[in-house]
Amino acid sequence: MTTTVSDAAPVKARPLAVAAVAAGTFTIVTSEMLPVGLLTPIGADLGVSDGTAGLMMTAPGLVAAVAAPLITLAARSLDRRVVLCGLMALLAAANLLAALAPGYPVMLAARVLTGVSIGGFWAFAVGLAVRLAPEPLVGRAAATIASGIAVASVLGVPAGTFVSSVAGWRAAFAAVALLAVVLCVALARLLPALPAERPARLSDLWRVWRAGPLRVVLVVTALVVTGHFAAYTYVRPFLEQAAGAGATAVSAVLLGYGVAGVAGNFAAGARAARRPRGVLVTLALLIGAATAALAATPASIGPATALLVLWGVAYGGVSVTLQMWIVRAGGGEAGMAMLTSVFNAAISLGAFAGGRVVDGASAPAVMWLGAGLSLAAAAVAGMSGRRTTSGS
Q1: How many helices (H) and strands (E) does the chain have?
Q2: Highest mean pLDDT range out of 30-39, 105-114, 290-299?
Q3: Average pLDDT, integer, range 101-125
Q4: In whole angstroms, how far apart are CA 48 and each of 41, 53, 338, 360?
């Protein structure tokens, strides 16, 4: 997140532009997470296992991890409005290709294009708050833009699951493609000209890795996000196998998870602005406890739903807490680019590792992997407080 404000003129409040970017983050996250609720039908239709289908999460996460810093460096003098519109148009094309995919290789190609859009969009979106709102409203604007993550969990992923249950999984991807087209037009019309300010340099990215406090944030990010997505990517197979849930029940449970995530986002946000490290320790402990309990609880939809709600509350606050920790540790725009890169690489790694566990053991077994990595993140974050006060 950039904290540099142009000295040329006071920044004019542009609430509609902020709302358009927030809708963009919603669409980006919905596109990335859509396969979570569709793994079983996609796998059955395209003839692959649940674990192999999980590569639909691995591919965009890995590509986004590479795309975030590269697009940040490449888009040196380009107007940020043009960049964001182009990335949203690419997202529309990627989802349309996924909806029309005749086989799994084409689906993976579509997900690669999705990853490029995800990495590039996130590299610039949150930092635009400082250019779309006057100083007193920057914090609110940034929170609004980032809220697309939580809202996508509440509306995007469950809605995609519902559309799939009614009209098939291809219709879910087609619907997101249409939404991306609408957002491309909205961004073009509502965003002002956003010429590049200070271009990012390779040395800025390298500085993030060399700084001790920033490196701790990135390590904790890798652990907690890998653990979360190792388990969360396979929530549908878990609910079907361990709790006997059908498609309607899965949609309802994911909706409850998403609502809990919104509550967790706002509950953690206020506290994370003051003590992000401590908040992250608490969130990681809760995720670890919830996923371990899911693995150990006898098969029943009631207890599973309650634990997923707890999991949603905890994970809902992770993204905003990590962003606040990067800011407090002095990461700036380069720090946010690297956070985006590590975050998406962790999504990819988590989905891949979870798939190997699901195929090699079972869906319930993957919950133990998520629990172990989340508890490791809590331990690293907790021990870092003994060595430094940055972001405590």
Answers
A1: 20, 0
A2: 105-114
A3: 90
A4: 10, 6, 33, 15
